Amino acid sequence: MTPDTLYHLRTFVYLFASVTFVIGLKRMGNPATARGGNLFAAAGMILAIIATIFINVKKNVLADGTIAYIQSQPASIIYILIFVAIALGTVIGWTTAKRVQMTRMPELVSMFNGMGGACAALIGLMEFHHNTGNTGALIAIILGMIIGSVSFSGSVIAYLKLNGTMQKPVRLPSYNIINSVWMLAMFVFGAYMILGGTDSMLLLYLLFAVALAYGILFVIPIGGADMPVVISLLNSFTGLAAAFGGFLYGNKVMLTGGILVGSAGTLLTIVMCKAMNRPLSNVIFGAFGGSTDAGNTTDVKGSIKDMSVSDAAVLLNYSKKVVIVPGYGLAVAQAQHVIHELEMLLEERGVEVKYAIHPVAGRMPGHMNVLLAESNVDYSKLVEMDDINPELEQTDVVLVVGANDVVNPAAKTDPSSPIYGMPILEVDKAKNIIVNKRSMSAGYAGIENLLFYNPKTSMLFGDAKKALSELVNELKTLG
Question: Which end of the chain is less enclosed by CB atoms within 10 A, N or C?
């Protein structure tokens, strides 16, 4: 093929890949089609990678206005290094993703997101000295490097918070002011690198270090309960950094992919903020999660009522409608298959069963949906918070498994609570409430749950998998 034909072929492949990204993203909005959408978008990405590696054609506009297509042929060692890197990355990524437990999925997502940010930062470090004096290219390089660096270091801190290594927030004195001033100074420094005409690699590495430090300062003050929002925000940062890489290289598929990731991450962040009653401005300026560990000052009234497995089985067996509220404790116990068995057993006896899904249940957006999909729960039974709340008043039994803050009535009744104003699953309206927990320990927000002291609530203590298995066996004996 001639160089111009190859150039247009690559453009067509990029367009096709971009379309697969859009379709894949659309399909991932529905649990029933999410897997297929992911594979569809991945196939488009593979085609784009192949076109980028093998079609090395540049379009140049000559002085007389004519267009010349120039084809280059990289050395064989370049291809060898590229395919070795792809093979290593594929093996590591595939192995890690296959072996990770569902409870560790948020950490994996955070780390993969950080790797994307690191790649964008490395592009900036490598391309800076090749584009000195080109203001447009330098804007893409510096912004991509800054945002990618923040995403990388912030994702590392988020990973440490999610796995419990750094669960408590670390707050410097006047950290809001420090973070805001640091961010402003970082972008002023970046503007100097773009407009100052310098090609100093020392200053470039210093800016890189400043951006990494800001990513750390940005995330360490945030409490663990707010990590779902942080993950989605950092994900949007990575997409934005990749989009700047697309601008730099004139790579349309990289630009499209980055824009899609960035915009989707931003929209998801807004949804998460709304679900947790957190202003987006507080996320950006460092005050986000400031009161997460403030504690609950409300005097708890009432007593805890324990329940046996046999009593719980009888209550569920003679109910007409049951709503199950899954939480992180369900994931920790790996009890998703048992809960599905319980659901099917109840339905065989004419009980209507649904699952109430809070937007921030678990450790990342969609965590509970993925967990239940693993056990083949019918997607139609997964009901979002806004849709299930009106039904709870007519529900005979709500079974809360490993969820805590997302069902805490303090969010509605206690203005001093750090979760006050956060939309919750209004399970306290149900006729009967069964809460399965290992102990009376507080949830991720670190506050007392007033639901446990509700006269309609009975506590079923124990590991979720063990307790639910006993519950299933007890129900079978009532057959």
Answer: C
Which CATH architecture is the domain 309-477 placed in?
3-Layer(aba) Sandwich (3.40)
> Which of 199, 226, 386, 405 is the catalytic position?
405
**CB distance 468 to 338 below 8 Å:** yes
pTM of the predicted protein model: 0.78
Six-digit token string for 242 = 């990749």
Please provide the size of the chain in residues. Answer: 479
Whether 293 is catalytic is no
Say if CB 200 and CB 135 are below 8 A apart: no
Model pLDDT for residues 310-327, shown as the tens digit of each residue: 999 999 999 999 999 998
Give residue limits of the domains in the chain: 1-99, 102-293, 309-477
